[in-house]
Design goal:
The structure is a homodimer of 229-residue chains. Chain A is an alpha+beta fold and 229 residues long. In chain A, 52% of the residues lie in helices and 14% in strands. The first copy, chain A, has a domain of 143 residues: 3-Layer(aba) Sandwich (NADH Oxidase), CATH 3.40.109. The first copy, chain A, has a four-stranded antiparallel β-sheet, with helices on both faces. In chain A, helix 1 packs across helix 5. The radius of gyration of chain A is 20 Å and the shape is globular. Chain A starts with a helix and ends in a 9-residue tail after the last helix. At the A-B interface, helix 1, strand 1, helix 4, helix 5 and strand 4 of A face helix 1, strand 1, helix 4, helix 5 and strand 4 of B. Strand 5 of chain A pairs parallel with strand 1 of chain B, so a sheet runs across the interface.
């Protein structure tokens, strides 16, 4: 089952067929416990038997170049971005292949926040940085589909059409009157759902701290030699 | 058909259900001609009737916050990275939904190289940056599957295992003896396939120039207020 999922992942579209990503499959409970700690102790990392970490990886490609009398120039931000895009495309192939086989999946956004910990635990060398993580396992509940913005909230025709106040009101209306939204406002003692995000879940302070940390990690992993310093 | 593809795209997993991305569907031939120019005049952009551009987008979410008495803090690098990951996951949902309906797709990596042009042509406001692009249409050829590295070239078990010279030789062997590889070496007058990449296709010089440009674009689009300057 895992092999089917991984086979689907590595068929993914990628940049120039360089396949500038790696996938780390972690089943070992001790290592998963360390990953769980780094993922802010989110339960599913311990509960689900398989953890996949998708990394931007120009290490392998650069090693190949060095073995083939070629001079690799992939220690820069564009190469990181290329590898990150390749890794995320592969991750979604894995996610859909897993769901097709009846498994449940959960992406863990904490992978970018705590990238330094995953580098340590998974022993990622230079030019390898984690960008997506998925927990995989049999579901023991069926929560139904999460709400999404309506089509015209996300899709633009021909060019980008900026949002008027009226459109914002319209596209967020259904989300704002969900029973779980009203519950959240009560729990968090907030006036609006947006405040739950800005004040509690994704604050400017945290976002800035994680930004500085991630850019520092890119430098340490060798991805910021852009020739401009 | 396009609506099925877009419906699949907007169902995609995303960070905190913020859906920090937008999809721009361009059919207009005049606008597609401008996109084609920016995509290094790659034929498929003109030939395929539909062009999808996937953007990291914290503009909509921030507008919503401002309308709801909440203070958005998404003008930083972490927020860009989050939106980019959300956008790429959605792009792969779109790609697979298109293929399932018998269409052909092609990702265009030029979208990050020339991001400034797409910002101009598609009129992307602050906090919106393109990260993936797909051309969609009926296929008029069936090129078969592209080669990929074997499973052990991309997958690591438990932790990252770095590549020895022997492993590099093994995992690149099949690619290196393909008839199209030998053809490429002759055409490009190179000793090794790796040199075709480092000297012609993805050079250090270009990668550095695109790195500096993309980081500048992140700044101009308002994604580099990390609080550290």
């Amino acid at each position: 089952m895992i092999n089917n999922i991984l086979s689907a992942a590595i068929r993914a579209s990628n940049t120039g067929n360089m396949q500038a990503y790696s996938i780390i499959v972690t089943k070992d409970p001790e290592i998963r416990r360390k990953l769980w700690e780094a993922h802010f102790k989110q339960d599913m990392v311990l509960q689900a038997p398989v953890h996949l970490t998708f990394c931007a990886d120009f290490n392998r490609f650069s090693q190949w170049c060095l073995c083939r009398n070629a001079d690799p120039g992939y220690d820069n931000f564009l190469s990181f971005l290329t590898g990150a895009i390749d890794a995320v495309i592969a991750s979604q192939n894995a996610a859909l292949a897993a769901e097709e086989q009846g498994l449940g999946i959960c992406y863990l956004g904490t992978v970018t926040w705590m990238a330094d910990k995953f580098i340590e635990v998974l022993e990622l060398p230079e030019l390898v940085v984690p960008v997506a993580a998925i927990s995989l396992g049999y579901k023991d509940e069926n929560p139904g589909l999460a709400d999404r913005l309506p089509m015209n909230g996300v899709i633009h025709r021909e060019k980008y059409m900026n949002y008027s106040r009226d459109i914002i009101d319209e596209i967020y209306h259904d989300k704002e009157i969900l029973p779980e939204t009203l519950e959240l406002l009560k729990e968090n003692k907030k006036e609006t759902l947006a405040q739950v995000f800005t004040d509690n879940r994704y604050t400017r302070r945290d976002n800035r701290a994680f930004s500085v940390k991630f850019l520092q990690i890119l430098k340490e992993q060798g991805f910021m030699n852009n020739g401009d310093q």
